[in-house]
## 1
Amino acid sequence: MDFSPEIPLSLPRRPRRLRQSAAIREMVRETRLHPADLIQPLFVVDADRAREEIPSLPGQFRLGREDFLAELERLEGLGIRGVAVFPRVDPARKSRTGREAALDPGGLVPSLAREARRRGVGINLIADLALDPYTEHGHDGVVDPESGRVLNDETVAILVEMALCYAEAGIDWVAPSDMMDGRVGAIRQGLDAAGFEDTVILAYSAKFASAFYGPFRDAVGSKSGKGPGVDKSTYQVSPANAREALLEVDLDCEEGADLVMVKPAGPYLDILARVRERCGIPLAAYQVSGEYACLHAAARAGWLEYEAVRDESLLAIRRAGADLILTYFAAEVAGRMAS
Ligand code: PBG
């Protein structure tokens, strides 16, 4: 066919019309990021002052108490409204069940929460409920010494106590990340019975047995040596299973979760989109340590353009349906929005 520029095609729709200028593209933009959508995970250590680098998470640090409290103020100033706190526990304090350290009201997470409350910090403090920072084997629950099984109901009982200990200290949201059956309902009942009906439950609902958690496990010290660490496939969902992940979401909604989460985020956008359609409560996604590490590594090698892929990765997670994103990029992205 001859090319005849003098004859315009007669098209009922020209989608390019709405892409012709930056101004019009901005007006028809469907998805935006706002600092209040972003939750910053922060690692803490039991020291007054510390800022320990985490080599597999470039730009992230394990913070001492004062550094953590100062960081909360800085993040609040950037418009971030929530942080997720993860302790690195001294190996000498770890045990087989993790019970003592996890339930110690003077432990790192409760004492930091008390101090933040005393100083009038307004940012929402979110704390994981799982035993992995406190157990010597790194599993999220109590391991039966004979069978090696992770015991469900025994673990749930400890998580309920842990929720009370955290709520008492001033943690605003508890986030069960353990994937034991029935934990959301049990935690809700325990909190309500103790008068903590305002404590929010953010359920890690569709949490996959992913190999993308490696750098996080380096950061909290829940594994030794290289590789992804312990195999959690008897409680976390198989990456092959979508229907099973949706069942977990349904159960957590029924049991009273205030928000549900999909984790990891980027490789599981199909799950995010499907959860968004079936469930009306707010939806969070966790862009996990390995996703962050991949983008950094590729950018360092000069293979990807750092800021562009960072922003695109977050936008895609929002577009798929997440209201909130837990991401190690939170502070820097909010900082760029503020400037
Ligand atoms: C603990 C927990 C994990 C993460 C958040 N909470 C690791 C795991 O389940 O082994 C991973 C977060 C990340 O990789 O950034 N249960």
## 2
Amino acid sequence: MPGKVLRSLRYAPLLALLVIQAATAQDKAHLSIDASKPGPTIDRNLFGQFAENLGHGLYEGIWVGPDSTIPNTRGIRNDVVTALRELHVPNVRWPGGCFADEYHWRKGVGPAASRPATLNSTWGGVVDSNAFGTDEFMDFLHQIGSDAYISVNVGSGTPQEAAEWLEYMTAAAPTSLEKERAANGHPEPYKVRFLGIGNESWSCGGNMTSDYYLSQLKIYSHFVRNMNPAQQDKDKMVRVAVGPGFPETEWTEAIMKGWQHHDWAWDFNALSVHWYTTANGWPVSTPSTGFGLDDYAKVLKSSLFIDEFLHKQEAAMDKYDPKKLVALSVDEWGAWHAPLAGTNPAFLVQQNSIRDAILASLTLNIFARHADRVRMANIAQMINVLQSMILTDKEKIVLTPTYYLYKMYVPFQGATFIPVNFDAGMYTHGAVTLPRLDAVAARDASGKLILELTNLDPVKPLEIDTDFNGFAPRFATGQTLTAAAVDSVNTFDAPNNVVPRPISPKIEQGKLKFTLGPKSITVIALEQ
Ligand code: AHR
């Protein structure tokens, strides 16, 4: 007994501290949502995907071939198509990435048996059967209901090769290439919504200087034409120029300065930037599973840098394009962790935890706050590579926490940004301090107000109290994504560890009241 008393006395100061903390720590947050001050449209193309010919991203991830025992439609996995349709994927970028600057499209059209086997020198030197080429990619897009974002080869290709590829895809007049496409099973011209003119041309795309790239850009943007009659006046192809993958703005300035003086003969409509969350820099070392609170905090903190990165690039673009005619396209972003043990390191295989879903919510919210300039983005990459939506292993498939996050964010596609003000204090872990809460709101076409709330604190819940201006909520429905641990993942054996659960938030006297669980993402739809 005396021992027990002593022990409780020993812990008394700690208990007192906890009581004081509980009383003083900010476990409540007040949000003000002003629907009377709508902002820009959150372009649906911010929710784009990226499918490079890399590892098992295309082969096995999408393409299993028509003779596979895995259920497929013309060689494309049915389970993957079903899952992706739910995400309303607006566009898919293909064939790269670095791979784009070594891709020669002619090797991937025509009867499968006559396509040459080539080496994928960028990603592991593996043999590529070229079975998944242009017509298969377009079929995949047709099946999932998405638009094409084609990256043409500037590094090792020619303007003629790229121009002929576009003619093959888009010509309606009876040219030889149009007839070839028809003979390959597609008489109707394809729609090419986005054209990437090179990829990371300052590095894997040819190690070019900005001046050299600018002259290439002028040539490609003139000669690589979209001939689809349906894309001449409206629905015009968006030409995307290569921008930087680093915060410095010299490259952006050089390209935008060139653009400022463009004439009728050349132009582009978006500048691509790439930014990955690597936390410890390169080579990547953060594990994608089996980590604790240190890595949780460090990776999330690191992911927030994209906000500063975008501000810098936008300021450089504003100098030459104050009317924001040229969009920013963040067409590669996401968490890049260490490759999973036992996998080919060139295949960039990683698991995907609740932390990655939170990272995606924070990043998409940043994009929404930059929506006046950032009008496209593509998470890297769609299946089996980096921060993917889906993992597959032969006939098995699992949907990742990031997949579910994208599904929860569908209502934000094309919605109108609505400002939210809040202060929920900070979450501190060791030397890392992060905002405790993130939130973003938007109004969809039917008038619903969509509110997203992320509680970054991995331990403490947060009580939310929200008032509205210009909107009188009466009904609320929602979903929350959370998990048992910061490194919780979905696996082939346990696919439902991290899945959204329905919630019923209360509305009392016009205020929304709800408690956010720790490390959670919540999306609520409010109706008047
Ligand atoms: O997404 C993987 C690679 O990262 C892409 O191929 C390249 O563009 C970037 O460096």
## 3
Amino acid sequence: MSDKYAVFGNPIAHSLSPLIHTFFAKTLNEDIEYGRVLVEDGGFVKAAEAFKASGGKGFNVTAPCKIDAFNFVDKLSEAAKTAGAVNTVKFTSDGVLGDNTDGVGFISDLKRLQIKLEGADVLLIGAGGAAQGILYPLVKSEAAKITVVNRTASKALSLAQKVNSDKVEAKGFDSLCGDFSVIINASSSSLFKELPPLDDSFIKKAEFVYDLAYTKEGSTVFTQKAQSLGVSSAFDGLGMLIMQAAASYEIWRGVRPDVEATITYMRSVLSSR
Ligand code: NDP
């Protein structure tokens, strides 16, 4: 019988995780089954226990269940503790382990794309779940300074306060100043085909722009805007999605999938839709 995994969330029909993990397994010549679990409001624990009882080995967790998963597991990794959220659950004989691979997925993708963080002044747009997941890994990176900016400025402030680092400051868009060599859009603006209210002058001076949102074209309204302003290194977040999935796969099965081959495969899947 195949080892059983899944992704939990609501909505879940759109999730690319089953395609990604099935491709990982195929290229590694492993036999797994990876499904989707739609979690009803308040139904996380019941769904997780039913999955375990049915022989599930582990599962991924997406919005809005990452905090439920955090509370559900017996043991948390350091990454899960600092993110305050779990995206990878593993059932073991020692209990239920909770990890978070979003941060490592993000940093690995920046490395893959040769986005330089050493000494960088980073602008992080957004203060939701994704921004929270990547802020601590950014603080731990070689970046010199991270400025968090958010449409609702008070949320940027409380996020910055949570990490409590001299490297981090919070701003509203109207009080933003300075030059940023790396701009990360961790807001959900691109999902609505909107741009964050960031003055073009900041974008023009950036060396690298990265949007966590992803599209079949490989560009978002934000990366397109950056390119139109002369930033040639502007990337969407598909690589991060695949990197975090690869890290989950490795946690479960102890082997590292071929990330580059999966990115090529997923781009072709998305463009044929
Ligand atoms: P949340 O709903 O938790 O947070 C949304 C954030 O976006 C808030 O800070 C919100 O600001 C801001 N925002 C929304 N619309 C606009 C706008 N038009 N202009 C400026 N700011 C805006 O979402 P998540 O943090 O979970 O997700 C954010 C993005 O990250 C999404 O695009 C998601 O797809 C992507 N993502 C990608 C991953 C990957 O692996 N590539 C992994 C996880 C997320 P306010 O506080 O003012 O409402």
## 4
Amino acid sequence: MADAAAAAEAGGADWIHVDVMDGHFVPNLTFGPKMVADLRKATRLPLDVHLMIERPEDWVARYVEAGAAYVTVHIEATPDAGGTLASIRQAGARPGIALNPETDPSRLVPYLDRADLVLVMSVHPGFGGQSFIPSALEKVRALRAALDARGSSAELEVDGGIKPENAKDIARAGASVLVAGSAVYLDPDGVSAALAKFRNAVA
Ligand code: ZN
């Protein structure tokens, strides 16, 4: 993990996106706060921690303490999204709110003023290597319009199935942050070359 973070840093990545999965909210299990704390020591890049877990309100403080710059929770995973976003900010990180592909973007509207990041999932969360769901573009456009209408400077992030080939359309739809795993780490030309392809695609 430290080597992977170092390769991204050397290649010019802006952030490290960390997918935390609990085996309940999504059918896969990854890692918890200890790994985030270890990663915090291994890179200077901001850690963008995406919590795909049930009851994130019980855990957010642990991830802030572990060194997360952003902590993002799913609207589908908590009965108290507003309180959870406030807890993240109070603990000292930037709060983010995410939605799954089947969730209507209007559900996020009540929380847009309290979030520093809005995350649109463009695959069904749980596993890497999936294909981008095209209807996510419409959600990005709708959320871009909603953020602009509020004068919000929150980041609009898209996560899942992003490759240099579709990055331009996603950026044009209004995304400010693109998350890529497979397209960076499995590029036969290497991590730095992959990141350069992304930069060129959205330039
Ligand atoms: Zn993610």
